Amino acid sequence: MAETQVARKTREVRIGGVTVGGANPVVVQSMCATRTIDIDQTVAQTHQLARAGAGIVRIAMDSEKEIPAIKEIRAQTKGITLSVDLQENYRIADRVAPHVDKIRYNPGHLHHIEKARTIEQKVKWLVGIARDNNLAIRIGVNCGSVAPAFLEKYPGDQLRAIVESAAYHCDLMDQFGFTRFVVSLKDSEPQKVVDANRRFAERCPDVPIHLGVTEAGLPPDGIIKTRIAFEKLLAKGIGETIRVSLTLPNDRKHEEVVVGHKIVDDVHAGRFISVPEFGKGLNIISCPSCSRVENERFVELAQQVKELTEYAARYRITIAVMGCRVNGPGETDDADLGLWCGPSTVNLKKKDKKIGFFSYDDVLGRLKVELDKLISARAAASAN
Ligand code: SF4
Fold first, then answer.
1. Which of 6, 133, 214, 347 has the fewest CB atoms within 10 Å, i.e. is most exposed?
2. In this predicted structure, what is the pLDDT of residue 258?
3. Residue 319 lies in a domain
């Protein structure tokens, strides 16, 4: 695949000590996977990511209990640009804002809190906080949690729903006279990431884009999935900041940043991968984990699922492994088999139907039973 880089010039957005967009180099960023209330571990991981070359480090927060922690984390990471992911609790934004440089909100997570307030009122409140605290904003749209109003407006066309949702939030920013924002449109399927970002870039050409393939999974497959999307987009000048999401243990989390820089350098040098057979067989999706991860065995579980299912590599089957009960149930609905982690058990699903809860030790055996049934059913269907 030989594509030439085409310059795309967006507006510049200053985020703490870095500037994204305009003629600035692509900023590689990453996210802590430690529990935010564990100050020592989160500070250590923030430094680990920054040392590897992360221009921005994101920290997840969705509870009031984490507010004292972010204050202390800020005090111990001076000079590092911090972003906070408000996850499903945008209401803590005012108390988090003094300690970070950027807030990320998900347009798909605004409707179910404070139902009496309109989306417009909520976004206006967030913009006011960003302005008062000298922050940037990321409008972070995710295919796994699209705002229901847009799914209803564009039935059967999820791609259009996410692009229109992002564009609507950009219009709100314009309406409120706020320009320090970036947008992301993420999915676990590389081609959807390419299509969504291309469409959005045409629709809102001056808005800097944060690229990401969610739940890309374990290396090396997670790296290949990410490259498939990022290469196509970066080569067209789309993507002013990037995050590579890999399932990695905490002591290797900085590899996301190393991989991110390598992709950017390769694209600039015209080096592209060629993997024509990739994606035609078994597809394992797994999240990069974050402060919500329910059990530290999650990464090991994802690795074990990969090893256990190697015998099914040629089957077009998707298995999703997610680290928590908040996003796990929804993010596994589209997979043929899904596992999401609780504190002491793992929930096994077949599409959106629950199979049951199993201990971390027992779930692999049951997964194999279900995978074998699926393979047999496929074989019987193709024989008929
Ligand atoms: S699925 Fe849960 S643990 Fe994994 S990244 Fe998403 S929110 Fe974090």
1. 6
2. 98
3. yes
